[in-house]
């Protein structure tokens, strides 16, 4: 029902606001993001084939200031465009390109205060939910490593914090404790095992933050949401052609980008797998990612960063599990869910991965440190 209403508004009003090329044909939902509502919109043109664009309703209950958000994305994509052009690449394909509104704005706010934005569609490329082909994960790692490298000279002070305390795991832990205490949905009694799992790892939550505060590790411009499904892979070469979902590009740590990629892409199963016997961290995928990521970003990292890279995979997985569990306890208000207990299922896979990484940590460290030259 909600979709029907949204679709009518989109077709009658929203699509007409943007600098789209051609006559509107139709619209369909796109992708498996947990935050925004994403659509592919198709347009007919006279002599050439139809063209499609990406249209997104920005989730403004999470991304509270769409103007500063879109200014961040404009700044970052302009910077990337310049570098891609200098290297002889195609910026319309290798970075997101904002399609502005007809009156030159970065997004459109409709009468219900809902905010919409549009991008060029990255064609001849695929968004994968798992590292299903050999070499794919290595290529995604290279692309995320390159992304970080290309932004290493971006003026970080011009970026606004789009989501406050996004990877502040200490704060995530505090929110979790509050959710347990309030137990708004009466769900805590059924998830005692998961709650205890988190509590036993409280001390892990502060390790990276503490080092950032003491300036022992540098702040960098990072993506902060480096899931495999936030990158488009070229259909012919399988190269990571374009990093997408730039909502969380902010000053952060290399650990956030590296750790989150491992959390999602090195898992043997989907993020919401219910058969936990299928869930573990695939050490070969871990190795692949380390090699790809460090081949691009490796020389910029400090020794301390190398030393904690493997741990960051566990930390980011724990953090994400805490966020899923917190959302479950609070009544599923943050992440989109598609079935009952979806967030609990997601939390459980994350905790299974954490436990598995703890068993493999020594091996993970050895793999990373074998690349450290300083
Ligand atoms: P969310 O923040 O909800 O995750 P994303 O920006 O990641 O939203 O978009 C959701 C999905 O839409 C992506 O995972 C991808 O499948 C698809 N998508 C987003 N932008 C593009 C694009 N420019 N070209 C092609 N597909 C895209
Ligand atoms: C969300 O937007 P999406 O689906 O790419 C979330 C990430 C989580 C991820 C878990 C802005 O990512 O932080 O790690 O879900 N993004 C935001 O799958 O909260
Ligand atoms: Mg996404």
Automatic annotation (TrEMBL):
Q: Name one Pfam family in it.
A: APH
Task: Give coiled-coil spans as residue ranges.
Answer: none
Kindly list the GO molecular function terms attached to this UniProt entry: transferase activity
Q: For the Aminoglycoside phosphotransferase domain, which residue ranges apply? A: 27-264
Q: Which InterPro entries match?
A: Aminoglycoside_PTrfase (IPR002575), Kinase-like_dom_sf (IPR011009), Pseudomonas-type_ThrB (IPR050249)
Which keywords, in A-to-Z order, does the entry hold?
Answer: Transferase
Protein name, please?
Phosphotransferase enzyme family protein
């Amino acid at each position: 029902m909600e979709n029907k209403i949204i679709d009518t508004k989109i077709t009658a009003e929203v699509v007409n606001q943007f600098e789209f090329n051609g006559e509107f044909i139709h619209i369909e939902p796109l992708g498996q993001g947990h935050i925004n509502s994403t659509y592919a919109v198709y347009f007919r043109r006279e002599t050439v084939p139809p063209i499609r664009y990406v249209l997104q309703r920005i989730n403004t209950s999470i991304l509270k200031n769409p103007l500063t958000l879109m200014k961040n994305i404009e700044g970052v994509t302009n910077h990337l465009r310049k570098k891609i052009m200098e290297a002889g690449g195609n910026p319309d394909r290798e970075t997101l390109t904002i399609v502005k509104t007809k009156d030159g704005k970065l997004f459109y706010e409709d009468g219900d205060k809902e905010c919409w934005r549009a991008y060029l569609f990255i064609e001849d490329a695929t968004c994968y939910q798992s590292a299903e082909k050999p070499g794919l994960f290595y290529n995604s790692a290279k692309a995320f490593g390159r992304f970080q490298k290309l932004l290493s000279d971006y003026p970080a002070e011009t970026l606004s914090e789009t989501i406050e305390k996004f990877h502040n795991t200490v704060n995530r832990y505090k929110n979790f404790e509050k959710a347990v205490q309030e137990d708004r949905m009466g769900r805590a009694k059924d998830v005692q095992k998961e709650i205890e799992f988190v509590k036993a790892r409280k001390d892990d939550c502060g390790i990276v933050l503490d080092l950032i505060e003491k300036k022992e590790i540098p702040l960098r411009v990072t993506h902060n949401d480096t899931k495999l499904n936030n990158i488009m892979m070229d259909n012919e070469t399988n190269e990571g052609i374009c990093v997408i979902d730039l909502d969380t590009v902010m000053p952060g740590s290399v650990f956030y980008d590296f750790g989150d990629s491992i959390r999602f892409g090195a898992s043997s199963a989907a993020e919401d797998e219910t058969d936990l016997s299928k869930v573990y961290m695939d050490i070969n995928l871990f190795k692949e990612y380390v090699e790809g990521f460090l081949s691009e970003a490796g020389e910029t990292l400090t020794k301390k960063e190398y030393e904690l890279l493997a741990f960051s995979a566990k930390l980011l997985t724990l953090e994400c599990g805490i966020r899923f569990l917190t959302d479950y306890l609070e009544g599923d208000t943050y992440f989109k869910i598609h079935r009952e207990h979806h967030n609990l299922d997601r939390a459980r896979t994350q905790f299974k991965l954490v436990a598995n990484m703890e068993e493999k940590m020594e091996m993970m460290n050895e793999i990373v440190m074998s690349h450290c030259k300083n």
